Amino acid sequence: MSASREAPSVAYHAHSLTDLEELEGAPSPHFSTEHHVTIESADETLQLYGYRRHLPKTILVWIGTVLTLGLLQLVFYWYTMLKVRCTAYKSSLREAEYILVHDDHRNEVFRPVRRMLPKEGSKLRIPDGHGGHLEVDYARYFTYRKLTYLWHPQENQFLTIQDLEANIPLSFYQEMYKAMSGLTLPQWENRTVVFGRNLIEVKLKPLPVLLFKEVISPFYIFQIYSVLVWYNDNYQYYASIIVLMSLMSISMDIFQTRRQEKKLRSMVHSHETVNVQRNGQNQTVSSETLVPGDILLIPPHGCILQCDVVLMNGTVIVNESMLTGESVPVTKVALPDTRDDDDTLSFKEHSKHILFCGTQVLQTRYYSGKPVVSVVLRTAYSTLKGQLVRSIMYPKPVDFRFTKDLFKFVGFLSCIAFVGFGYTIAVMIMRGSPLKKIILRSLDIITIVVPPALPAAMSIGILAAQMRLRAKQIFCISPSTINTCGAINTVCFDKTGTLTEDGLDFYCLRAVFSPEVDSFSRPKFGEDMNDFQMDELPKDGELLKAVATCHSLTTIDNELCGDPLDLILFRKTNWIMDEIQPDGHVDETARFDMLQPTVVRSPVAHFGSESDTELAIIRQFTFSSSLQRMAVIVHNPAEAGHRQHLYVKGAPEIIASLCNPESVPLDFGDVVNRYAQHGYRLIAVAKREFQMSYVKAMRAKREAIECDLTMLGVIVMENRVKKQTLGVINQLNKAHIRTIMVTGDNLLTAMSVARECGIIRPNKRAFLIDKTNKERKDGRTQLIIKQSVSSSEDVIDIDGVSSTHDFDPESNNLIESSYHLAIAGPTFAVVCDEYPDLVARLVCVCDVFARMSPDQKQLLVNKLQEVDYTVAMCGDGANDCAALKAAHAGISLSEAEASIAAPFTSKIPDIRCVPMVIREGRAALVTSFGIFKYMAGYSLTQFITIMQLYWLNTNLADFQFLFIDLGLITLVAVFFGYTPACEKLSRTPPPTRLLSLASILSIIGQLVIIGAFQVFTFVYTAQQPWFIPYAIPTGHDEEDRRSMQGTAIFCVSAFQYITLAIIYSKGYPYRKPLYSNLPLCLTLLAVTAVSIWITVQPADFIIDWFEFDPIPYFVDRLMLFMIAVVSGVLSYTYETFFIEQVILGIREKRIKRRQITSGSKDSNKFERFLLSIGSEPNWIRSSIAEGCASAPSLPALAARPSDVTPLNGSIGTYSHNDEHGQHYLSPTVSEYTDRSSVQLLNSDDTSERPKNSEHV
Q: What is the mean pLDDT of residues 568-590?
């Protein structure tokens, strides 16, 4: 039992522990001296570093921990690398006691290496990666994010157990199935030790642990420090309120965490009693005891699968909506018996034989009374369901510059705090203050400059946006992604079910009629037929029989279920599918592999007085998105012998390539192209007859019989665009958000739908790129580019969308290219493999990608991200899972609230959810910017106030701090994010850089204005005749904080905080106006009214509580109010006109224009590409044709004889060059195909015509 196995990609780095490697014969990477390796496992890349404990260092660390009362361990908790350096030393991975793990997102975890021990008196058997096992005394392993990484002594590296079990030969499973003895008890015990329990367990952390982890976050540690300072400085009221608020916040956080844990646990935690074959006996055990290699018997009437298994016999109908979002039942078939020992199990290639954990088994079918057998592949967190749970438990952090800028700005505020720290010490020493007061005041200044509530305030916008999305039936499992949605500039759409309706409507069929027996002519298409009329169809109605049998429909609870397309076509035939045998009542679950496993019977009306035709479907080759076809083997019981019929349906070009060329009409390509260009979806149908016994037919390989087919005809289906699609695409185009179609459908059909829904604009030219069957002299495939038609202006709204290749000052962005490109998946694969230098430019201008496999969709998203696009992907979740996960924001149209497919799941069954998500993302992003600037402005405003009062050797009173921090700041911050998103998408995207010049100038400018008015108030008050200077307490007198200057500055600053809130809560154009946020408006009105009352006519109890040294005259108090009003007006004017008009409106756009036109690295890559290639597609012609002597010129194409088919890259027909036969090449030009340059060059005015088609 062996199989070739490729180990996971491991990049070894020369982190030598000694100088021995410099000597001759230094150990290779497969020896044990490596300190660092890079491994790729599942969806992540991990950097592993080996370490051993350093005992002397560890002892010193514990002494330091005791001396610092645990603070040293707190620092180690925050900075893992510091802990590593202080307690361990580097070692080889083979000898390591600890592993330092770095992931893709710069997370660092220090994990202990443990020993896996066998049962006493036995050896431990671990997988060797080739289907066999290694016997060892013990195994070294560490765990990371619920996965076990095992040290492999042969590979000399850590591998996950699922990697070791990844490439087991198919023969291994077949042998287990044939033996049917299952695992022996020792084998099961050994595997239980290695693989662990089959349990996806979300443990509820104890409340003390949750509390402790919450409290030791830097935010709350800073709160504890602040409260200690305030209590020592006699701010009891304020400190007590902050403690109370912090406790409430901690309680809410713990409550939310516990609720999410319970919700996740209820969603994923399940176990059942299952039947397995062990020790040659059928045993009933708990699903938690399952291990890979167990033989699992699946019950006939359904269950929830608790592990990933491969099906060995029978058929199973499952619902995989939890994993894919696709609620259509899926039929899984048994793993075919192969004699090729080199074939290994692939989860991608053999997905039709694999049942995944968490999916619901609706029904199983096999011989009556016999069980459906499967072999366990993966358990617990290694399963596909386990991956979903891990993605929820450990969400991908958003790599967003906003977060980095936030920490940089907090660092900047810390620098200001230390400046204030020095200023305070100097002033206090000058004033002769006691040492305790100097220490308290200098420490207090740090709590003022760095607002402790900043992290909590920053999440308000995201939480509010998440609540609004949930109200619109859009669910998000990764809230941090919402801010990223504000930067989206490209959206990729799947076609079927996303842009178009889920179901297809039957339009017509075109049967292929064979020529007369003595005729030398080719088969021809008949006229359009709107029904399957047996007497009008050729070949005894073979096309009707094919459509009636070639499907994956089944009966569940006496109801026909399956793919919607199959249902529509089958119902159109009016045939009857009867899975109940005529000789008695047979349970649904027992209908498998009988003489007539599934009988399809014709209605009597089709054959008049003749008896019904009965066809038995004896084997299905289910639809494969990579093969783009499905097939069935059918037997007619009325026919003698072993005559079998193979019916195949699928993509026209695929089916035509499998057919005997003699059976395909010459105008096949023209007919297909004509319908495809009008947006119809085409399905070609073919057949083959052969003699084969029943047993051989069940074991025959698919590729061995799917050849030399006879074309029967094409079925034309109408796929209507959803009525909401055009409006949404126009909305996105107006907002200069690029729209791309990525579909598995035909290229011309995709282009037609793209025209209809507005992805291809009427004011831009459209070109197709296709591959030919010819090779260039350098061995690369020859490509062709030709012009197609654009959309009609009657259906596409082009108002406000420019067609010029220019910089748009309104959108602050480079306009999209002045043309569209479209490409099919096979051609895209050729470009990626043979012309890799063109891929980056191609994805910048290509807006229609057809015939794309799931892997190619993911590749496209990655390529768009590489040229600096921020990409959203919207799909139905079935074939788009990989692309949805790869995008910055994946939106799955699904009934489920959470699926493995995407961070966003929309119950709205159309693409209206896309602009909703983008609008909410922009609102959340702008809210985060605004609240950050508000909190920074608040702390710096208070800093200026305190600096002036420290000059007097006094401070704000307890209730003054309380009014500012609780009444003015906290209440405003809580409601700040409740301003709804604007209904219209702005043409200008919001800024994504917090440390931009505009943000910095805004904060600094407001600081200057606020500081100037506070200093003016400070000086103005001191100049008044009624002014009484502050008397500094002497000796042990209780500190009296009352001062007239302090009272005046406090009154003015109260309005300045309100002004900052109004300025930074501005909505347009990303949020609705301020008045739409009723709670915030009411709060601002209330605190403004209270501030006017406190300033102009304070009551006696206010004077006592706030410890005012009152301003004696009403006129002077009114003067303070007027100073605050003038300050507010000036602040608002500065922000509105200077920042928004001059800096953002003029300067930023000039800089952007200069960056793009000069090709600066500060601009996005796609902008630089569009600058060079956005006006004409000549770049692709010249790039590919360069140095290619075999590339024919346009005149050469025009001079070709008429009997040579021009290679226009569409669906194929035949060349007449070969006298002895005809070869499948490409179609002839007809009035329906895209315009070719050959036709233009043959006209008289070629010099004035565009070059529409060219070999390149």
A: 65
**Residues 134 and 113 occupy one common structural domain:** yes
- What CATH number did the domain enclosing 536 receive? 3.40.1110
- Which stretches within 50-116 are classed as H helix? 55-67, 71-78, 80-87
CB 1050 within 8 A of CB 945: yes
pLDDT per residue over 1002-1024, tens digit each? 888 999 999 999 999 999 999 99
Beta bridge partners of 490: 738, 871
Beta-bridge partners for 556: 559
My answer on whether 987 and 1016 are in the same domain is yes
Residue 231's domain comprises 207-268
Structural contact between residues 302 and 308, judged by C-beta atoms closer than 8 angstroms: no
Is the same domain home to 892 and 1019? no
Domain boundary among 1126, 1144, 1162: 1144
d(CA 715, CA 568): 12
Distance CA 515, CA 37 (A): 67
The amino acid at residue 463 is L
69 & 121 share domain: yes
Does 851 lie in the same domain as 710?
no
The CA–CA distances, whole Å, from 930 to 935, 973, 1078, 1144 equal: 9, 10, 18, 15
Check the CA dihedral 1214-1215-1218-1223 and report its sign: negative
Q: Is residue 728 part of a domain?
A: yes
Half-sphere exposure of 705 (CA within 13 A, CB side): 26
C-alpha pair distances (Å), 169 with each of 293, 341, 399, 702, 733: 13, 6, 40, 19, 50
User: Based on the domain organization, do 1003 and 1109 belong to the same domain?
Assistant: yes
C-alpha to C-alpha distance for 1255 and 1189, rounded to whole angstroms: 12
CA distances 981 to 472, 800, 919, 1046, Å, are 13, 22, 6, 40
Tell me what pLDDT residue 589 has. 47
Q: How far is CA 860 from CA 699, 757, 844, in A?
A: 37, 21, 11
For 202-222, write each residue's pLDDT tens digit.
888 888 888 888 788 777 788
- The answer to whether residues 38 and 93 touch, using CB atoms and an 8 Å cutoff, is no
Q: What percent of the chain has pLDDT over 70?
A: 81
**Within a domain: residue 580?**
no
Whole-number Å distance between alpha carbons of 827 and 395? 35
Q: Indicate the pairing of strand 360-365 with strand 813-814.
A: unpaired
Mean pLDDT for the stretch of residues 585-606: 57
**Residue 667 among the catalytic residues:** no
Which is the catalytic residue, given 494, 667, 880, 958? 494
Q: Which residues contact 1251 (CB under 8 A, 6 or more apart)?
A: 1194, 1237, 1240
Residues 971 and 1045 in one domain: yes
**Domain final residue, candidates 115, 143, 167:** 167
Residue 678 lies in a domain: yes
610 within domain boundaries: yes
Q: Are 974 and 460 contacting, i.e. CB atoms less than 8 angstroms apart?
A: yes
- Are 1090 and 1112 part of one and the same domain? yes
- pLDDT per position as a tens digit, 691-746: 888 778 877 888 888 888 999 999 998 878 888 898 999 999 888 899 999 988 77
